[in-house]
Specification:
Strand order of the largest sheet: 1-2-3-4-6-9
Radius of gyration: 19 Å
Structural class: alpha/beta
Strand content: 5-15%
Number of strands: 9
Number of helices: 11
Helix content: 40-55%
Bound molecules: 3-methylmercaptopropionate-CoA (MMPA-CoA)
């Protein structure tokens, strides 16, 4: 029996964000290629809704963009005259959506190609792993458009590449190539043209086999530990480690290794 599509997912798809399950991986597609997947308000709400309502069987997710570019950032045609209060709410709406991705129930891998610019880069930086193909380029044109990042970029981008590099990108309009982007830490993987989605799904499929509590620890505890003073971080780590190792799944996995039934770590 085929299940009726979830009304929230149907509405998201109508607004340019579709979701399909591939095994335990939710594959989320930005589908507005004629506008280079520029993110209008409806798409931001759709992203929020998709990630706040991932099916329980989704143990990892992938985001990719249809067409020649991952994402051209904020839909500039919607850049209205807003007063300060409206501007804050608009930016906070992006924060809610991107936080739903970063702090959702499943680790998220992005497959990047073509333009990863402005809010598109902010979106990619809210995910846990970025896989770029060699057509990818990164920029923050907000600086030259007389605006500022508003989707969490000033918090997340410096964590990946450092404050000085982000300031340079915004002051000078610097564009990073796929190779340089990987070198400075914008992506963790670099693959040949057209290969990013397959690689992202391969990684997500593997991530989906981890113990759920390990994935939770990595996506929810790790980023917080990194923000804490060292002494608090050590304490949180000890709590998280004890919770993770107490789970029955951890015991089963460790026993399997000790009995020679689990894979060894192989030289790369
Ligand atoms: C758009 C947008 C957009 C394309 N908003 N409509 N982002 C930017 O400043 C990047 C602006 N975009 C570009 O630099 C280029 O479009 C691309 C390098 C991404 C792609 O170039 P290309 O030659 O493949 O496409 P195109 O011909 O420029 O665009 C195709 C259509 O998409 C065209 O519309 P059409 O009706 O004339 O066909 C473009 O107008 C439209 N389009 N990008 C609206 N961004 C939370 S704050 C975040 C702040 C920001 O993200 S600011 C950075 C915005």
């Amino acid at each position: 029996m085929t299940q009726a599509p979830h009304p929230i997912m149907e509405r998201a798809a109508a607004n340019g964000v579709s979701m399909d399950m591939q095994g335990a991986v939710a594959v989320v597609r930005l589908c507005r290629p004629t506008k280079r997947n520029a993110l209008n308000d409806a798409m931001i709400e759709a992203l929020r809704d998709v990630f706040q309502n991932l099916p329980p069987e989704a143990r990892a997710a992938v985001i990719y963009g249809e067409g020649d570019h991952f994402c051209a950032g904020l839909d500039l045609s919607e850049l209205k005259e807003r007063d300060a209060g409206e501007g804050i709410h608009h930016s906070r709406g992006w924060h809610t959506a991107l936080n739903a991705i970063e702090q959702g129930p499943a680790p998220v891998v992005t497959a990047l190609h073509g333009a990863v610019v402005g809010g598109g880069l902010e979106l990619a930086c809210a995910t846990h792993i970025r896989v770029a193909d060699d057509t990818t380029f990164y920029a923050l044109p907000e600086g030259t458009r007389g605006i500022f990042v508003g989707g969490g970029g000033s918090v997340r981008v410096p964590k990946l590449i450092g404050t000085a590099r982000m300031i340079d990108m915004m002051l000078t309009g610097r564009v990073y190539s796929a190779q340089d982007g990987e070198h400075v830490g914008l992506a963790q993987y670099l693959v040949h043209k057209g290969g990013a989605l397959d690689k992202a799904i391969e990684l997500a499929t593997r991530i989906a086999t981890n113990a759920p509590l390990t994935n939770f620890a990595l996506t929810h505890a790790m980023p917080r530990i990194a923000e804490q003073p060292a002494d608090h971080g050590f304490f949180t780590e000890a709590l998280m480690a004890s919770i993770a190792q107490a789970a029955p799944e951890a015991k089963t996995r460790v026993r399997a290794f000790l009995e020679g039934k689990a894979a060894k770590v192989k030289k790369a």
